[in-house]
Every structure is written in C-alpha cells, then in structure tokens.
What does this fold into?
Amino acid sequence: KAGVTQTPRYLIKTRGQQVTLSCSPISGHRSVSWYQQTPGQGLQFLFEYFSETQRNKGNFPGRFSGRQFSNSRSEMNVSTLELGDSALYLCASSREGTASGNTIYFGEGSWLTVV
Amino acid sequence: AQTVTQSQPEMSVQEAETVTLSCTYDTSESDYYLFWYKQPPSRQMILVIRQEAYKQQNATENRFSVNFQKAAKSFSLKISDSQLGDAAMYFCACLIIQGAQKLVFGQGTRLTINP
It folds into this structure.
C-alpha cells in the first residue's frame, strides 16, 4: 500500500515567485493536512482539508492557500515567496471515521528553498 | 488552545540501554490522541506509537512504550534496548478529536545513540 506521496521533493524558487506543492494521500484517506517545518518555529500547522473542504487553517498569511480535489489529492500554493518561506513542507493524511482513523501519516516532505 | 512541551532538547544513550523521553501537554479537551513521531536525517516523519486518551493502559510497540499519566498531562516515551537506528529527532504530538485533524507538536528531542 503506497504511503503519502509529495511532489516535488526539492525545489528552489526566487523571491516574489509562487510555488505549488502536491500531495497524494494514502488510498482511502480523505483528510489531508499540511505542516511547515523550520529550525526556528518547529512544526506548524498550515491547514487541513476533508472532502474538498478546508476545515481548519493555521496562523499563516493569505499568501498560503490550498485545495483538495475529489480524489482527495491536495495542493498547497504559496504566492509572492519570501526568504522566510524556505522550509520543509510536510503533507499528512488520515482515514477518520474508523478505530484507527485518528492516526496521521506523513509524506517525505517537499524542501523549498527561496533565494 | 493546546500546547505540547518537550523539555529535553537533546538526549544520548548507550547502545542496548534504555532511555526515556519526556513530554507534557496541556489541553482542555477530554477526547484526544497522543503520538510520538520519529524524524531521522531523511526528514520522513515516522509514527512510533499512539495513545488514546480514554485508554488507561499504556501503549506498547515492540521496544517502544509510553507512560501516560492523564491527570498530570504527561506522556513519556521509553525506548528499550536502544539501537543505532533509533538515532533521530523525536516529536511528541497531540491530536484533538473534534473537527479538523490538527496535530500540535512539541519542539522535539534529538536522540543520539552511542555505540
């Protein structure tokens, strides 16, 4: 059974550009969440989607957005990139609604470097 | 709002010995899950162990076990017979079972295994 898949794994962008990261959850998982990991701030929650609806959003500026498709795949977008957006972006999925549904599994992450 | 605190930024242990990583959390919710995740240098976030708050019995997964003290809001991880492959960052996390699947993480403990 395939795990959470994130693409691209590594990317370098220039300040002011925008970036789109993609995440395919584990088959059957309908909840997809995104986290940002930096050395200074640690792991911070970005947002979570379930059945194409954003259920919760973390304390990030409006430049950070996301969406979920009908097949549960999710994308997040960061516009007008800043140097401080350089981070590891982790996607996670869970099944929900089952005994083990409240276990969250992570992908390998997308490394974003803004120069 | 919930918080998770890991008071040990770094720990080290001799191979084959036992080590305990500490975690305290704060939440006003009665229904939640607690997790320990391991993040090796590859940065893949790997689930180590899960504990449901409503269960009094401490979770165990092979060499990994937890000491869950609900009244004290404490959730420590014990690693027995430490192996070189256990070297990693360990994160304690809390998931509130209400609406969105959102994990709140501690700052992490870097575990070094000495041969």
Notes: Chain A has no helices and eleven strands. Chain A touches chain B through 26 residues (CB under 8 Å). The two ends of chain A are 37 Å apart (CA to CA). The CA atoms of residues 16 and 80 of chain A lie 4 Å apart.
